[in-house]
Amino acid sequence: MMKNVHGHTVDHLGEAIVAGRYPVAVALPPEPVLCQELGVSRTVVREAVKSLCAKGLLSTGPKVGTRVLPSDQWNWFDADVITWQSKAGLTPEFLRDLQDLRRVVEPAALRLAAERATAQDIAEVEAAYAGMKRAVEEGGDYVTHDLRFHQGLLQASRNRMLVQMSKVLGALLRTSFEISTRRKDGPAQSLPLHRAVLDAVIAHQPDQAETAIRILIDGAKDDIEEVLASRRRLPRLNHPASRLKAA
User: Fold this and answer.
1) Local confidence band at 1 (pLDDT 50, 70, 90 cut-offs)
2) 82 found inside a domain
3) Whole-model pTM?
4) Helix or strand holding residue 188 (H, E)
5) Tens digits of per-residue pLDDT, 84-114?
6) 183 and 147 in one domain?
């Protein structure tokens, strides 16, 4: 769905703040300057500032103007904030925070999925797994199917809050899968691990499902730490997902 003028203005300012183009604790340019820079009205700028205040990026007050808040006050459960950080570049701190979150959330979600998954949930995850397998065997977009697999399992938890958190985890999952895909035979080696997760959910075995997803998560953590230690460039999430070559 196309964003309106307000949405584009929020995106523009949000990306600029997260990228550090407006320093912390320094006032934003005056409204007339922003209006001229962005080509929008004062009303649009004011509404965008209100939205960014709600996301924890800005604060406003008499005599101090509109100022950028430190990143530890940003709402990291807001999908827009995650998207802006992804575009600005994923930092080691950001990835490690999200990895910790994944280790807390996914095992618990998989226990619920093993108890609650419907036939439709299983069919969706099976389709994602088939796409992963096809990409390994014939080449193609493995990452998108891998993301669909994990988000489908979160959906199968039948917990609305966990489903919402899948939006936050999406940046980490995409990055993790991109990194693992770059490893020689990484996707092929991970397929049986994904199959074990899915089989445990199908069999309604919460303990086995939790154990299987922890093995996958720990492997992804090792992949990320290896890349961080090597100082190789992290994937850019505003680019299309990488594709596997045919075997």
Assistant:
1) very low
2) no
3) 0.78
4) helix 186-202
5) 887 888 788 888 888 888 899 999 999 999 9
6) yes
